[in-house]
Q: What sequence folds into this?
C-alpha cells in the first residue's frame, strides 16, 4: 500500500516545498501570507453590476439534512449561517437545490418548489444577517443559488433506491445503478420539460434575491453527463452543439424570464474513466470504462484534455455568462480527482496518487482556462487538502492570476471562519483544520446527515456520530 507524507507532518514551508519538488509539482505558493487591505486575497472584483468584496468563495455543500418535501432544517440553517460568518464575499450557490422532485440526489435534498419559496429565501437572509453581524458591510457580498437535476445519481424517494434519469448508457456506471435498459434514460421530451423547470426555478431564485444562479454541469449529474453524451441520439446528443443545447435553452429561457440574474456554471472541467477499488484497496480504472464518454479527458481516459471544456467556455462567453466555478470528476466514481483526500470515504478507494497531485491538477487546469478567458470570473476548487498551506497557495494563485477566487469546500465545514482569520492576519487554529477524514462524505453514503463529525463540536456531540463510528467499524 503506498503511503504519502501527511500534510500535518510538513511542519515548515521548506518541508512543504521539498515535498512539492519530490512530486515534481510546480504548485505556486508564497512563504509569507499577507493580511490587511494590500493582501491579494482582500482585493474586490467587479462582475457585471456585482461587486465581490474579496477573493474567497464558499463552494456549494449540501448536508443531506432537508425535510422530505425539500425545505431546510435547523442543520441547514446552521450551515448557511456558518457560510455567512466565514468572511468570504462570494457564495457559490450555498448547496445543490433540485429544480424538481425527480432530480433530487437524496430524499433530503432541498427542492425549489413554490411551497418552499419562503424557507429557501430565508436561508439567504440568514446568511446575510450573520455576515452583517460579524463584518458590517454586505454590499460587497454576492449570494447565488446552485440549481440541479441529479440525472444518473437521482435518489428522490429512498436513500437506498437509485431512480436514475441518465443522459445515456454507460457500461462502467450502469451496473452500479441497476440500469439495464433505456428506461433509465431521459427522453428528449423530458429534457425539454426539465429546461422549463430550470427556468421557473431561476425566476424563483431571482424573486428571492439571489444574485445569480449556477446551472450545474459537474460531478456526473445530468448537465455534466449530457456533455459527454456522444452516443445519445436526438436533439441533445452527438455533436457538441447538441450536447450543449440543454445549457443554451436554459440560458435563453432565464434571459427572457429573469433578465436581472447573472448566470454561472459549475463545471467538471476534466474527468477520467470511472474508478473502482482494486483488490489491494487502491483505486483503479474500471475495465469497462469508455474514454469516449468522458468529458475533458484524453483518448485513454487517464489525463486532462481541455479542448472541449475550452469550447464550452467559449459558448458560455458568447451567451454573456461571466461566472465559472471549476471542479473535476465526480464524488461517486472519481473522488480522488474531485476532493483529494488522505482518508477515502467508506465506499471509495485508497488514493492512487499523492492527493497533492490532485490539488495541483485542478489548479493547473483552472489556470489554463483563466489564461484563455481573462474576462471571465474564475473560481477554483479542491484546495482543502492543502490544509495548513492553503493560505500560502491561495495567495500565490490570486497574485499570479491563476484564478480569480479561491473556492473552499470541506475546510469551512471544520473551520468556518478560516477566510476571516487569513484576511485578519490571525494565526490559523490548527485544531480546526480539515484533515480530509472524509466523514462528511461517508455519513451520507451510509444514510446519515453530513457534517464534520471529527472536528466540529456540534456534530461531535450528535448521536449520529456513534452511529457513524459503528457503521465504519462494520
Ligand atoms: C459534504 C459535501 C457536500 C457537497 N455538496 C456539493 C453540492 O451540493 N454541490 C456541489 O457542486 N459540490 C458539492 N460538494 C463538492 C465541494 O463543493 C467541493 O468541490 C469539494 O469538496 C472540493 O473542494 P475542497 O477541497 O475545498 O473540499 C460537496 C462536498 C462535500 C464534502
Ligand atoms: S469530516 Fe471534517 S475533517 Fe473530515 S473531510 Fe469532512 S470537513 Fe474535513
A:
Amino acid at each position: 500500500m503506498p503511503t504519502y507524507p501527511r500534510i500535518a507532518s510538513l511542519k515548515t514551508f521548506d518541508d512543504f516545498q521539498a515535498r512539492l519538488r519530490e512530486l515534481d509539482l510546480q504548485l505556486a505558493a508564497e512563504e509569507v501570507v499577507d493580511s490587511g487591505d494590500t493582501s491579494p486575497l482582500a482585493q474586490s472584483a467587479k462582475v457585471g453590476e456585482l461587486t465581490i468584496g474579496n477573493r474567497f468563495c464558499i463552494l456549494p455543500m449540501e448536508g443531506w439534512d432537508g425535510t422530505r418535501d425539500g425545505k431546510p432544517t435547523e442543520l441547514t440553517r446552521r450551515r448557511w449561517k456558518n457560510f455567512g460568518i466565514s468572511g468570504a464575499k462570494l457564495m457559490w450557490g450555498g448547496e445543490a437545490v433540485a429544480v424538481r422532485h425527480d432530480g433530487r440526489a437524496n430524499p433530503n435534498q432541498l427542492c425549489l418548489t413554490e411551497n418552499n419559496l419562503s424557507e429557501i429565501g430565508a436561508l439567504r437572509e440568514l446568511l446575510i444577517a450573520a455576515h452583517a453581524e460579524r463584518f458590517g458591510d454586505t454590499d460587497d457580498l454576492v449570494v447565488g443559488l446552485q440549481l440541479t437535476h441529479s440525472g444518473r445519481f437521482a435518489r428522490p424517494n429512498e436513500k437506498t433506491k437509485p431512480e436514475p434519469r441518465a443522459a445515456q448508457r454507460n457500461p462502467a456506471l450502469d451496473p452500479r445503478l441497476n440500469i439495464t435498459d433505456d428506461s433509465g434514460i431521459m427522453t428528449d421530451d423530458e429534457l425539454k420539460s426539465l429546461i422549463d423547470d430550470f427556468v421557473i426555478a431561476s425566476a424563483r431564485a431571482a424573486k428571492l434575491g439571489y444574485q445569480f444562479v449556477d446551472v450545474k454541469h459537474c460531478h456526473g449529474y445530468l448537465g455534466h453527463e449530457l456533455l459527454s453524451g456522444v452516443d445519445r441520439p436526438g436533439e441533445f446528443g452527438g455533436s457538441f452543439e447538441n450536447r450543449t443545447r440543454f445549457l443554451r435553452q436554459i440560458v435563453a429561457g432565464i434571459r427572457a424570464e429573469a433578465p436581472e440574474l447573472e448566470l454561472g456554471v459549475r463545471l467538471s472541467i476534466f474527468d477520467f474513466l470511472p474508478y473502482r477499488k482494486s483488490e489491494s484497496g487502491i483505486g483503479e480504472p474500471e475495465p469497462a470504462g469508455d474514454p469516449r464518454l468522458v468529458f475533458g479527458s484524453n483518448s485513454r481516459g487517464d489525463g486532462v484534455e481541455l479542448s472541449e471544456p475550452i469550447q464550452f467556455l467559449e459558448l458560455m462567453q458568447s451567451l454573456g455568462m461571466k461566472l465559472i466555478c471549476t471542479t473535476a470528476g465526480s464524488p461517486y466514481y472519481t473522488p480522488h480527482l474531485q476532493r483529494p483526500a488522505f482518508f477515502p470515504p467508506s465506499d471509495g478507494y485508497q488514493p492512487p496518487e499523492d492527493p497533492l497531485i490532485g490539488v495541483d491538477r485542478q489548479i493547473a487546469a483552472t489556470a489554463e482556462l483563466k489564461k484563455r478567458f481573462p474576462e471571465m470570473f474564475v473560481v477554483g476548487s479542491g484546495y482543502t487538502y492543502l490544509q495548513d498551506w492553503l493560505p500560502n497557495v491561495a495567495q500565490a494563485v490570486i497574485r499570479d492570476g491563476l484564478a480569480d477566487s479561491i473556492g473552499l469546500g470541506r475546510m469551512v465545514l471544520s473551520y468556518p471562519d478560516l477566510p476571516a482569520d487569513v484576511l485578519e492576519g490571525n494565526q490559523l487554529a490548527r485544531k480546526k483544520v480539515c484533515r480530509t477524514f472524509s466523514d462528511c462524505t461517508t455519513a451520507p453514503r451510509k444514510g446519515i446527515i453530513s457534517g464534520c463529525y471529527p472536528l466540529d463540536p456540534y456534530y461531535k456531540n450528535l448521536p449520529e456520530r456513534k452511529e457513524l463510528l459503528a457503521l465504519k467499524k462494520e
Q: What stands out?
A: The mean pLDDT is 97. DSSP finds 16 helices and 13 strands in the chain.
